[in-house]
Amino acid sequence: MVRPIDFDFNEQTAKDNHFQNQPDGEDNRSVNEKAMEEFEICVEELRAEGVEVIILDEIHAQSRIKTPDAVFCNNWFSTHNTGLMLTYPLATQNRREEVKKTEIVRDLFEKNGFAVIDVVKVVDNITEGEYLESTGSMVIDHLNATVYAALSARTNEKVLQKFLEATDGQYTELVTFDTLSSHGQPFYHTNVMMSIGAQFAVLCAEAIVEKDRQRVIDKLNSTGREVILITLDQAETYFCGNILQLKSRETGNFIIAMSESCLRGFTKEQRDQLRAFGKVVSFPVSKTIEFIGGGSARCMLGEIFLPRPNASRRYSHDLRVFPLPELPEQQ
């Protein structure tokens, strides 16, 4: 996670992120202080559940340009159980400043016992319109080596192919589709309308255009997961698609991170469904980080799948080693 010391309304990303809202009469300092308070509580709640949280503080290093969205760290890098760390071509200039912290983040991983075998750019040079914003743009089914991606100005199909090449066959299937929000535009990121856990998936099928909708639903159903369908209002108003299943390193139990507004947005039946797959931990980010930044709990979490040579196998960051319910034979 990245401490939001620069947090503010990001004018550059607001052009296609309709989830962002201008702060109501508050100055930058006040907004930032509230974001920091929300962030610290999130970290405390995760650690209380035994989730290991590594925090990046050195966000100002190597740049004088502010990075107001740095708290949403899942958008510029990804890590993989092969020891690979990838960096991505982001759509806005001030978000590209975050990628300049690559070596700092690599050092942070290694200091915490993770093995970074290689760091690779998905593309060497950013071309106008050819963007891919990591696990914001992609929702990855690690158990089935499948990548789901809602195409948008920030999620380019050509760069998705480059991601598959960069991971050298680790992911074997790409499921792309078009979406339409209530604003008449594509969803800016896939992970605000879709989430995949080890045993479940949350999907805003209403957001997928009719020609693609059933194909995506059928694909998720074929994995043996319980598919929880949410409405367009649940996705747009409450961020119910922006959740992430995590594993406690201390207990081995699953937890599901989401915002407080997201928890309120789910129906009782849906909350009960989710609680069957892990303890719900709700982040108090709805008033500042979520409302102003236009991203929620999942966006704040950069997953670490890197190998950890000295860790026990039980707590490996490869989901495949965890005890799971029976799934179809191909998995």
Automatic annotation (TrEMBL):
Q: Which SUPFAM superfamilies match?
A: Pentein
Name the InterPro entries on file.
Amdntrnsf_FN0238
Pfam families under this entry?
Answer: DDAH_eukar
- Region (Disordered), start-end ranges: 1-31
Top-level taxonomic group: Eukaryota
**In its UniProt entry, what is this protein called?**
YkgA
What taxonomic ancestry is recorded? Eukaryota, Discoba, Heterolobosea, Tetramitia, Eutetramitia
